[in-house]
Fold this protein.
Amino acid sequence: MNDYPQLSAMGVTSTQDIDRYMVNSMDYTDVLRIVYKRPKGSILAMSRTYRFPRIQKKSAVADGTTQVVMESNPALRAALDELKDILEAKTSTRDVASAILEELRLLEEDIALRNECIRKLVEKIKDD
């Protein structure tokens, strides 16, 4: 779990079960919802929700005055980076698995064609 310190600090323990996530804003709060893929009949939660207060910062405007800007919480940004890494790793694993299955299908097709060709050659030899 050391690979994902922010998620660990939030209490997320089963990163391998994360299916997707969503972020919404309500008033001055960002809401992160993590959805898990659980087996049928599991007693574990299907999703968890986390709230992150927005941070007020003052920024200078072109005319020399300052303006209050609401920024997302650094903890939220760190959690989103970790979630993005988790889901990208899953996607690349799925892509590799799909490519391997496709190669296996092509190999089976090739073997079937060669098998048929050899059978025809053997039948020609038997007929002579």
Summary: The mean pLDDT is 89. The helical segments are 5-10, 74-127. The chain has one domain: 5-127.
